[in-house]
Amino acid sequence: MAENKNIEEIFSKSVRAGRRTYFFDVRSTRAEDYYMTVTESKRDFNEDGTPFYKKHKIYLYKEDFEKFKEALKEVSNYIIKEKGEEVITKKEVKKNETTKNRVEIKKEIKIEVKPEIQEETSSDFTEVNFDNLGKD
């Protein structure tokens, strides 16, 4: 579905969220009624290091606003109830998994300690010089 580039911007609100930006834009239908587009824009990089933006867009029409708001509210409340408001990052999860794995590994390893062996010295030892061997 190609979007008309000549569409007048009626109202817009953006929300920056890390590497992503969300755009909430008000557009006009052919009948001059309003609808909303929500665009997720994420900055990424080409192999040569030049930046580009990946964009995903959804269209919301007035007749769906109430259902959308209710679903967003319900899902948001569920997540907060189940996981709280604190953000859990992959780094923390990996760190915790690594620590957990180390503890499990330590439990499985049995360390056997042997008493030190002292070198025995003998007075019957004859010192041999190998420097002249192989030379005729």
Give the topology, please.
Blueprint: E1 11-17, E2 20-28, E3 34-45, E4 51-61, H1 62-83, H2 90-108
Antiparallel strand pairs: 1-2, 2-3, 3-4
Could you give a quick summary of the protein structure above?
With about 140 residues, the protein is α+β, with helices and mostly antiparallel strands. It has helices at about 60-85, 90-110; strands spanning about 10-15, 20-30, 35-45, 50-60.
What does the model show?
A 4-stranded antiparallel β-sheet has the order 1-2-3-4. It is an alpha+beta fold and 136 residues long. It is flat. The N and C termini lie far apart (93 Å). 30% of the residues lie in helices and 29% in strands. About 13% of the residues have low confidence. It has a domain of 69 residues: Nuclear Transport Factor 2, Chain: A (Roll). The longest helix is centred in the middle third of the chain and has 22 residues. The chain contains 2 helices and 4 strands; from the N terminus they run ββββαα. A hairpin with a 5-residue loop joins strand 3 and strand 4.
